[in-house]
Amino acid sequence: MVGWSARGTTTATENRAVADARRLDARRRLYQLGSGAFAGLVNTIVLNPLDVIKTRLQVQERLVRNGAIRSQQVTSMAVVRSMYMHEGLRSFYRGLGAALCAFVPNWALYWYTYEELKGALTRLHRRNHARQLQSQPGPSDRGGASTSPFVHWIHMLSAVGAGTVTTVTTSPLWVVKTRMQVERLTPSSNAQPRYQGVLSSLRLIMKEEGVPALYKGLFPSLLGLVHVAIQFPLYEKLKTVILPQTDDEDANGVKASVRILLASSLSKVVATVAAYPHEVVRARLQVRESVSTNIFKEIPLALQLARQIYVREGARSLYAGLGANLMRTVPSCMLTFSCYEFARRRLEQHALAEHHVTKVSHRP
């Protein structure tokens, strides 16, 4: 009887441990979503004016043609002056609702998917690495799986996978955001805005242009995944080489904050310069109502548009608004990554503390 009692107690303890671990894992995933959403919210509210300026610079061809700015040399300051003089201060937050609806779920979904893919690929790599060590006995593992060059591929594949899921899911929101931000550039800019809210804009676009119109610019956006393929592996690497972490370091201290700020800003600059032309092509596709909504027709159209921009306007036009973009995206990236890392660490620490209390309370 004593044996059965002890065995029953052990089984109950193991079941509680498994249940607690599952609850902790579920909370961790929820915290990933919440941290990403929080980062997107702060990012959008603080930096939306620079996003509006960047988007308008990307469609500078229409700015000049419609007379919003008469100079062929469209600059960030010219756009700012024109917006302030013709539309007032509120124009700098034009499309804020759509931006919030785009950025918040975008970052929540992106960070969640990225962390999940990274964890799954890391576990798969470690299992394969362990099998190789068992099947090929010899000298001890040099550096282990965690330092393998394949880790960079894990970060790259996770970033591209998360970017693909996020891009396809949130594409309609980006189309609405872009339309709302550049609507005042049309000849009838004094008329009542047609795109006044996110839901009403979605319905209007679907009614007049069909559902595929909500995915205009999808191909250039997917092509732009080269951006995250560069940024995230570089970010993860820089975090390990900039001010290397010590055992007695506070994870949320000054050193950790500086590490995240430097790693996020440097990786963002490199990735933006490498992948920026696709953003110009995407923005112009999204504001052209006559553009084909078939993604297979959009592929050659996007390539043709890129060639036209290069031939007619010069290579510099493929980097139109790069200065404003960097002014926005570098602080944006620093803010977003810092908010995400801080929120995630705090929430996970809170969850681990509660988990520890629960384990202590369950002890016989």
TrEMBL record:
Q: Name one GO cellular component term.
A: membrane
* PROSITE patterns listed in its UniProt record: SOLCAR
Q: Where in the cell is it found?
A: Membrane
Gene3D superfamilies, per the entry: Mitochondrial carrier domain
Q: Name the InterPro entries for this protein.
A: MCP, MCP_dom_sf, MCP_transmembrane, SLC25A32-like
Read off the Pfam families from this record: Mito_carr
Q: Which residues cross the membrane?
A: 91-112, 153-176
What's the main place this protein lives? membrane
Q: How does it sit in the membrane?
A: Multi-pass membrane protein
Domain of life (superkingdom): Eukaryota
Solcar repeat windows: 27-120, 150-241, 255-346
Q: Which GO terms describe its molecular function?
A: nucleotide transmembrane transporter activity
Is Repeat found in the keyword set?
yes
Keyword annotations from UniProtKB, A to Z = Membrane, Repeat, Transmembrane, Transmembrane helix, Transport
Q: Record keywords: Cytoplasm included? A: no
Protein family (similarity comment): Belongs to the mitochondrial carrier (TC 2.A.29) family.
**This protein is called what?**
Mitochondrial substrate carrier family protein W
Name the species this protein comes from. Porphyridium purpureum
